[in-house]
Every structure is written in C-alpha cells, then in structure tokens.
C-alpha cells in the first residue's frame, strides 16, 4: 500500500507565526541604550589608575553589548527580508529593498561607531519595517518600545 502524497504550500519558509520584527526591535533598543550609556559615561582623571580601569571595563562591556546586539538586529532583519518578504509584497511596499538595505547598513554603522543619531535612525528603520511587516499580514500591531 502506498501513502498518497500530500502537497503543502506556504508563502514563507516556515509556518506562519514564526516571523516577527519584535526581536529586531529589542536588539535595536539595546544598541540605542548602550550607545547612550557610552556617550553619557565620563572619563575619569587618567592618572587615577583604579578609576580608569573601572571606566575602561565599563566602556568595553557597553561596546561589546552594543556590537553584539547590532549584529543580532542585522541577522533578524535579514531573515525577515530574505525569508518572509516575497516578490508579491513589493507592490504594496515598493521601497522594501531600500528600507531593509539602509537598516542593515545602520546596524553596521552602530557596531563601529558611537552615534546617537545612527542609533535613533536604526530605531526608526526598525519601526518602519515593523509597520510594513504587520501591514502585509493585514494586522494593526502597535509599535511599543520596551524602554
């Protein structure tokens, strides 16, 4: 006895519900938070060795987290761009590729810079992607920040 073939179709690589831009938002918020902490952290007198050691330790931790989260944000955005969005979504979002390309570039900029401007631009780009994503799914999901 042979088992009949079952044909399945999906508009994305995984079952619906797998994709969500929220993880990119959380990572982008961490990038912005660490950037702001770095910009606000004052350098002590360089002759105060214990204070400088503490300062450098804190700054290096902020930088490591900022870079890790920027890379995480980029990964999450690239998954949405390459796995979720399909050619049929371009009609409703003709600037989709430009928005994602700029967002990915902002992730890179936030890794190598300490720029409050770029961190905010990344948040704005992720918010725009959030709106595009949920519009494609026909849902009105509010943009809510954790911080």
Task: Give the secondary structure arrangement, pairings included.
Blueprint: H1 22-40, H2 49-84, H3 96-112, H4 116-136
Helix pairs in contact: 1-2, 1-4, 2-3, 3-4
Q: Helices and strands: which structural class?
A: mainly alpha
Taking Cα atoms only, what radius of gyration do you get, to the nearest Å?
A: 20 Å
| CATH architecture verdict | Up-down Bundle
pLDDT averaged residue by residue: 92
Residues in helix, %: 55-70%
Shape: elongated
Number of strands: 0
- What is the string of SSEs from the N terminus onward? HHHH
According to CATH, the homologous superfamily is: Nickel-containing superoxide dismutase
User: Could you describe the largest sheet, including whether it forms a barrel?
Assistant: none
How far apart lie the N and C ends?
59 Å
CATH uppermost class: Mainly Alpha
Unreliable sequence segments: none
What does this structure look like?
With 147 residues, the chain is an all-alpha fold. It has a single domain, classed as Up-down Bundle (Four Helix Bundle (Hemerythrin (Met), subunit A)), CATH 1.20.120. The chain has four helices and no strands. The chain has helices spanning 22-40, 49-84, 96-112, 116-136. Helix 1 (22-40) runs antiparallel to helix 2 and helix 1 (22-40) runs antiparallel to helix 4. The termini are far apart. The model has no long low-confidence stretch (mean pLDDT 92).
Supply database-style keywords.
single chain, 147 residues, mainly alpha, Four Helix Bundle (Hemerythrin (Met), subunit A), 4 helices, 0% strand, elongated
């Amino acid at each position: 006895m042979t088992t009949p073939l079952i044909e399945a179709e999906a508009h994305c690589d995984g079952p619906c519900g797998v994709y969500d831009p929220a993880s990119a938002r959380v990572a982008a918020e961490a990038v912005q938070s660490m950037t702001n902490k770095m910009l606000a952290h004052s350098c002590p007198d360089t002759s105060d060795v214990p204070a400088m050691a503490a300062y450098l330790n804190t700054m290096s931790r902020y930088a490591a987290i900022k870079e890790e989260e920027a890379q995480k944000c980029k990964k999450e955005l690239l998954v949405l761009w390459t796995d979720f969005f399909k050619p049929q979504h371009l009609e409703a979002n003709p600037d989709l590729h430009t928005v994602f390309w700029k967002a990915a570039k902002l992730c890179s900029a936030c890794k190598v810079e300490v720029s409050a401007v770029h961190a905010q631009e990344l948040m704005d780009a992720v918010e725009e992607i959030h709106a595009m994503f949920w519009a494609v799914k026909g849902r009105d999901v509010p943009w809510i920040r954790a911080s």
